[in-house]
Each structure stands twice: as structure tokens, then as C-alpha cells.
Give the backbone structure.
Amino acid sequence: DAGITQSPRHKVTETGTPVTLRCHQTENHRYMYWYRQDPGHGLRLIHYSYGVKDTDKGEVSDGYSVSRSKTEDFLLTLESATSSQTSVYFCAISEADYGYTFGSGTRLTVV
Amino acid sequence: EDKVVQSPLSLVVHEGDTVTLNCSYEVTNFRSLLWYKQEKKAPTFLFMLTSSGIEKKSGRLSSILDKKELFSILNITATQTGDSAVYLCAVNGGSQGNLIFGKGTKLSVKP
């Protein structure tokens, strides 16, 4: 979607390697979120940010860390990738009580 | 525990049919309820509802919220094959504005 981009779009990595996914926005929205989407589970919140250097854990944060050093960038790191982290990852942005805008997603496969 | 439950989980109809998708919720800090449509990529925004009894309408789609009974419905009239998608219901109820998602309803519209 215009205003929010995720990279990479697809990635295959090996078990035990670190992986970083990037979310970049040009909307200057305060809030940014990382979700993962899996069959049978829907979208689940991993981490979110409510400002530069302000982040907090979501429902499924184990094995993930995040950083936000600039308003426009929110990074999600898998410290040591496992097969259970194979998923589609979505970044989202929002401002105040408006709805979310989602990025196009990153399909991550851990082999 | 906050939760959002959608029903049915999947639905197959024929073009021209009318469908009703359901979403019930139990959330501590309700702010709004949102509907999204997800085809192959990112969820796209349909409606945001904050007040009971006020119908939101966009073309053949409409939605209404009942805050007393804690549910919402999404109606699609005169369905078309292009309506085939997963419809996601989400409630803005997290402490930092994070959305809590249901698992979605997969709608298939046959010609």
C-alpha cells in the first residue's frame, strides 16, 4: 500500500540464523505494529511501537525483538529463526483512533 | 482475555446471493470495531464502527454494530465472484490502540 512498504517480500532462511524484516512508512504515523498471520490463528500481534524508541510486546513476542530508531522505520528481528516462525508477517501503521493501514507482507520460510 | 470470534469460518454461495458475516467480541477497552477484506495480500480497510445502531454502507456492503450485545454484522448483497476473500473483524481495544483480530470468514462466491 502507498505509504508503507515492507522488505523483503519473500525470504527463505535456515534454522538458527538471525533475520531482520523492515517496515518503512512515509505517513509520519505514531503507531507501528508487527503481526504474523498463520492458518487457523488469524493475525496475532508480535510487537508494537508508540513512538521512537518506545516499543512493547504483543501476544506472541517470544523469539522476536524490535527496534524503532526513526519514526519511519520499524524493524523486526528473529534472533535465531526456528521452523515455527515460518509465517507471513505484516506491518501496520495507525494514528490515534483511525484504522490501520497494512503493508503487503513478508513471506518468511525457515528451513 | 480479550477475544474476537467470527462466524461462520467459511461460506460458499452463488453469485447474486446475500450473505451475512458475524463478529462477536469480548474486549476490555472497546474503542472501535473494524472490518477488513483480505484477498491474496494485505488486508484492505472496509469499515470502522464506533456507535451502536448506525449502519455504515459502501455499495453492496454494509455493516452495523451492537455495543449492548457486543457484536457486529457485515452484509454483502448481490454477491459477485470478486467478493471472494477472507473477511476479517478486528476490535480496537488494546491499551496502545492495537487491534485484536478474529480468525476471519472465508467467503467463496461461485459463478
Observations:
- Chain A has a mean pLDDT of 93.
